[in-house]
Structure formats: C-alpha cells, structure tokens
Request: fold
Amino acid sequence: MNIAIIGLGYVGLPLCLQFARSGVHVLGLDIDSKKVRALNAGRSYIKHIDAGEIKRLVRAGKFCAASDFSMISVGSHTRTIAKPPYVGCYGERVQAILICVPTPLKKNRVPDLSFVLETGRSIAPHLQRGQLVVLESTTYPGTTENELREVLERGSGLKAGADFHLAFSPEREDPGNPRSKVAEIPKVIGGYTPACLAAAVKVYSQAIRILIPVANCRTAEAAKLLENVFRGVNIALVNELKGVYAAMDIDIWDVIAAARTKPFGFMPFYPGPGLGGHCIPIDPFYLAWKAKQVGQETRFVELAGEINRSMPEKVVARVGRALAAQKKKLRGARVLVLGLAYKANVEDDRESPSYRLLDLLAARGAQVAYHDPYVPVIKPTREHPHWAGTKSVKWSRGVIAKFDAVLISTAHAAVAYQELADWARVIVDTRNVMAGFKTGAGKVWKA
Reply:
C-alpha cells in the first residue's frame, strides 16, 4: 500500500513513521521545504521524534518527503526523491491521502479553515478515481462532508462516495508522553458513506491496532470536540476552585491528591497559568461557533473558556503580591518566566500561556526574560511576533539570582528545581513543582 500524508508536524510526522514502520510506503507532503530537506536527510526537527528512526525508514524506501502535491497522482511518485543511500519513494499508486494541517482561530475566534481548504484545492486537480481522502485536523461537525467535499469535487470533477472515498478520523497525539504510541491509540473513523468508511478502515488497519468505526464524519468530528471540551471544562473547574479554596486557606493540590484516591467516579485535572497547545484553547470555540449556526448555545463551554483565559491575569497579580511581600513593586522588577512551551518536556509553544504572561508582565512595567531548555530562541508566531528572536537566558546561579522573581509556567523535568530553590529570591509556582524540594520560608508562592 502507498499513502500520502499532508502536514509533517506534531500529528502528521508521527503518523508517517507509524505507517512506514508497518510496511506501508509513505509520501509525506509539506509546503515547508526546510522540513522536506531535513526528513529526506534523515534529520528530525521535533525533539521527541528519533532521527535514527527517520533515517532508517528513509533508507529503506518506506518514507520520503516532498512539496509537490501532484505526486499523489497515479504513478507520479515512482521517481527517486533523495540521493543514495536514500532510495526515495517508490510505488505505482497512492491509495489514500491523509490531511493533518492546522485549524487555528481568527482574531474574532471564528474557525479558520484556510489550511484545510487550501490543501483540498491543492490536491483536487490530482485526485484519482478510487482514492481515499481523510481529514484528521480537528474541526466542527460538517466540515468534511460539506466544505472539504465541495472543494475536492469542484477541483477534481469527481464525486465523493461515488468516484473517490472521503472520511474523517481525528488525531489523538500526546507529545512528550513516552507511553503514548500511535499504533496503540484507538482510532475513531467516520465515513461519508459506508463504502468510504470501509476504505478508511482498510487503510488504518495497516498501522493502527484498534479502530472505532462510527456512524458518519459528523459523529467522528463531534467526538474529537467532546474529548477536548471535556478537558477544557474540567481544567476550568479546578482553576476556579483553586481561588475558592485558597480563600478558605485550603491548598487545591492537596484536595486533588486526596480526591484522586477514589477508585471510581473521579478523574484528576490540575490547575495552571492558562491553557496552551493547538487543541484545548481552540477547539471549544469551533463547537461554539457551529452551535450558533444551528441556533444553539454553549454557555457551559464558553464559561469554561472565560475562566481559563482569565488565569494569566490572576497569576501576574500573584507575582505582584509576592514581590510586594519583599518590599518590591512589579514595575521595574526583573521577572523570569520559567518554561515557554505549553506543556512539560516538549518544545511546542503554540498558544502557550507563557506568551500571555510575558505580555502582561511587560505591560505592567516588569523587565521580563524566559528560560526553557526546549526553546532556545523564540521563532516568529502569528500571535506574538514581537517576541521573535528572544533567547532563553542561561541557567546559572549568577543569572537566576539577578531576577527579583521566577515564575514557573511550565514544569520541564530537565530543570534543576533544587538549584532554583537555592538560587532564586522569590518563586511563583503555578504547577506545584516546588512542593517536593527544600526551600526557605516564604520563598515559594503558589499561584
């Protein structure tokens, strides 16, 4: 079997490698020529993905990368992409095209399907009869069978369900979790027609152990949104209770530790400085927008979003109080944000609350810097272009001791927290990471 996967980021690349190691010939497509060159040379640009595995699969002829979308046409990708010893991609036909591209929000929190639809327009002229197209990008119910289908049909002259197959199968990636294996994560699949579903099941069965067929594309799209809304709502709950319990002189972390001992009916979620990543801060608004289109409200979901978005403001206020206890003002203070990535032990900084913390601290007159072993320099982003080029400060006693306060936003395991306890003047901890380390009285402030 030969397949093409479009979008070689945190979702698409692991999926490419899993299919390739399962014996499938995989063509990875991406408009970023730097990624294409790196992969064909056997290099990884995602820290938790092993470059050795990429090199092995490229050399074996199971995986190659390109930017030419016409290669999805029958027989057009039989040529060698890379120079020896990399043998490139071979095969006579791409049976399936899996789309793994971003689905961000516009400034007014309206879904931005431009990446999905532009990908559809790019592949439509090359779409062949009998091929399968699967969207994996998180989106609102109806996207696959309406917007994407219309783009594909208009550009190809073919009909979904008759001339080509169409399906939706949401990604379920957990970057940085060593126990998360693509092959072992159950895969939800919804087809435009029963035949489309059967075609998708046949493809995914090559690489994924457990498949969960559902009624249609809309059900699969809705299931993914439910997964992420569930997480966002529960994080909002503990974020709100953190303040409520603090007013009663109760530590929310102690409460969660006690509650999680219940073997049924409870699942622990933890507070933090806000939501980050490409899913949880964004996906609920896809559902909220679609709900309005059908005359429905999502008050619960939107309230959770408001609570989570308010957390950076509360954290910065806590920094101000911690400094005031040391007879210092926030304006003019030197504050180090520890952790720029949105979650521990990854370099992914998309939608990270650390950016919001940096903005708020700077707006209040603080002199800000950051340290993150996974993000040595900030790359250009659509939301925070003004931080591009800023470098992570060095980790040393001399550097850390110069800051009036250190704000822990992301708890990377690679950070030496006992050194932080010894070196820092004041620590504001949003992740409860300092609970296991010896610190001086009054040095650590939970937030």
About this structure: The chain has a mean pLDDT of 94.
